[in-house]
Design a protein that fits this description.
- With about 110 residues, the protein is mainly alpha-helical.
- It has one domain.
- The protein has three helices and two strands.
- A two-stranded antiparallel ribbon has the order 1-2.
- α2 packs across α3.
- Bound molecules: zinc ion (ZN).
């Protein structure tokens, strides 16, 4: 029996929410840069999206994120205003692709392949 990653982004109130999310993102992205056409596996970083209104005394709570290599993380950081909307889209795309993979595996499992 293969183990599939069917876990949605963790949304808990626990103090290690951010660490859980980091682990989720890295596993979902197979620890590869998700920049279109990149796929680098060396020194991957996770870029997080921060929930609105959550950056007071409890620190920031992350909503979701995406794995990027150092080079592409720097690119995004340097051009924050330009890339922020694209990063949201990229995460949506990665999540969607992840769901498709899970569906495909489920069907293959049902067909006994
Ligand atoms: Zn990259």
């Amino acid at each position: 029996m293969q183990r599939h990653n069917t876990m949605p982004p963790p949304q808990t109130n626990s103090s290690n929410q951010n660490e859980l999310l980091r682990a989720y993102v890295l596993e979902r992205d197979h620890i590869r840069c998700q920049w279109p056409g990149c796929g680098a596996t060396s020194r991957p970083e996770v870029l997080f999206i921060v929930e609105n209104g959550q950056n007071q005394e409890n620190g920031q709570r992350y909503q979701n994120g995406v794995t990027l290599c150092r080079k592409h993380l720097d690119t995004v950081m340097m051009h924050d205003k330009t890339f922020a909307p694209l990063i949201y889209d990229l995460i949506q795309l990665v999540e969607f692709e992840n769901e498709l993979n899970i569906t495909e595996k489920t069907f293959k499992g049902l067909l006994g392949e």
